[in-house]
Amino acid sequence: MLPQPSRRRISPRRLAALASVSALTLALCTSAGNGRLSPGAFAPGAGPSALSRTSAHGPCMIGGNRSVQMSEGIPTAPGYTRSTGTVRALTLMVDFSDAPGEGDALDRYREFFPQTREWFATSSYGRLDYRPEIPVPDWLRMPKSFRAYGIERGAPFDPGYRELVRDIVAEADPEVDFQDYDLLNVLVTPNAGPAALDTVLSVTFAGNKEAPTADGVPVANASFVYSRQDDGSGSYDRTGYRVLPHENGHVFGLPDLYTAEGGGAVGHWDIMSEDWGANNDFLAWHKWKLGWLDASQVGCAAGRGTREYVLTPLALAGGPKLVFLPLDAHSGYALELRTRAGNDEAVCRPGVLVYRVDANVDTGMGPVTVFDSRRDSGGCTRAPNVHAELSDATFASGESFEDREAGIRVTVLAAEERSYRVRVTRASAAP
Ligand SMILES: [Zn+2]
C-alpha cells in the first residue's frame, strides 16, 4: 500500500491572512514523497555518490528511520534525481480541449526559464548544471478534457492523476526518448483548473515507484506546475518561477519545511518552506545533503569542549558554510551565515541562523525548526504574504544561543562582512 502523500496544509489563520489580500492567487504545492522507490532507473539517487564528507563527519550524518517518507537524513535515500553535475530536465507544456493553451507554449516555458536554471546554478555554486530541454516546443494536447481527469479533486495517486501521467507519456513518446532525461517538468497551461488559492494543485512525484514507464524507464521524478504563483505584491515577474525550484527540490529528495501552521517553523530561510515573494536560498543543511558543499566547508562539532569556527556567507561561493552539532543519531543543531547576496537578496537582518534538524520528522511535519533570536519582534521584512516573524531570527555579534538541557552554547564572537566567528561549547560529546 502506498503511504499517504504529505500535502501542503494551510492553517485557517494563514488562509485568512492570505484571503485579505485582494486579487491574491497563491500556488501552493503537494509533496508526494512516495516512500522508497525504484533506485537507479530514471534517477541514480542524490546523496551517496555526490555527498562530500570525511570520517570526522560521521556523527553529523544523521539519519531517519524507515517509516519516514522524505527525510532530512544524510545521505538521501536512493531513487531521487541526482543533484550534482549535468541534470537534464525534460520540460513539457501541456494543455487540454477545455483549457487550450493561450498564446505560445514557449511563453509558459519562459515563466520558469532561464530563471530556474540560474537559481540552481547560484544556489549550488555551479555544481548543479540544470538543463531544461523542450523537445516538444508546443502545447502538448491531452486526449481528454482537464475536467475529465478530475485533477481538481485529486490527490497525486488518484486514478485521474495516474491517467494524466500516462497520457502525457503516451503523447510525448513519439518525440521524446525518456532515457535521455533525469527529471520531468510538466508546465500545465495556467488556465486549467481553479484559482491556486482555492485548490492546491502543483505537485511533485518524487521517487515514485508506481510511476508509468516510458522507453523502459519509470517517470519516477516529475514536477507539475499549475496556475500562476502571484502573491499580489507585484513581484510575479521576478519571483513567480520559484514554485519550480521548490517542486524540483522534492525530486532531489528534499522534504517540505512548512507545517500545518504554515511557514512558522522555518519562515523564509529555505525555498522548501515558502517559495513565493522575497527571495530565499536553501539552508546549508540542504546544500550539504545535495552534494553542493565540500567536506572542508562543513564543521562537525561532535566533541566535548569549546571550539571556534568561521562561517562565510552561504549565498557566496567558497569558504566554510555549515557547522553541525549532532544531538543524537537522528537530530542536531545547524549554524550558518545568511547575508544579502545571491539567492538571498531579501535578507533583512544578516547573521548566524540557528536551526534544529530532525531526520525522524517527516515532510510537512516540521523536520527543521529555526530559532528566533528576537521572539515576538514581528520581524524585519516588508515583503507581503511571507512569514515575517522569523525574518530577523539570525544571531548577531555578541548574541548567544543556548540549549541548557543539551549543554550546548553558541556565541557569535565577531562579525565582518565576509566572515563571522562563532564559539561552540558542548558540555558533553555527541552520543
Ligand atoms: Zn512542496
TrEMBL record:
Highest taxon above the source species: Bacteria
Keyword Signal listed: yes
Signal peptide: 1-32
Biological process terms in GO annotation: proteolysis
UniProt KW keywords: Hydrolase, Metalloprotease, Protease, Signal
GO molecular function: metallopeptidase activity
Classification via PANTHER family: PEPTIDASE M6-LIKE DOMAIN-CONTAINING PROTEIN (PTHR41775:SF1), SECRETED PROTEIN-RELATED (PTHR41775)
Protein name: M6 family metalloprotease domain-containing protein
Species this chain originates from: Streptomyces pilosus
Species classification: Bacteria, Bacillati, Actinomycetota, Actinomycetes, Kitasatosporales
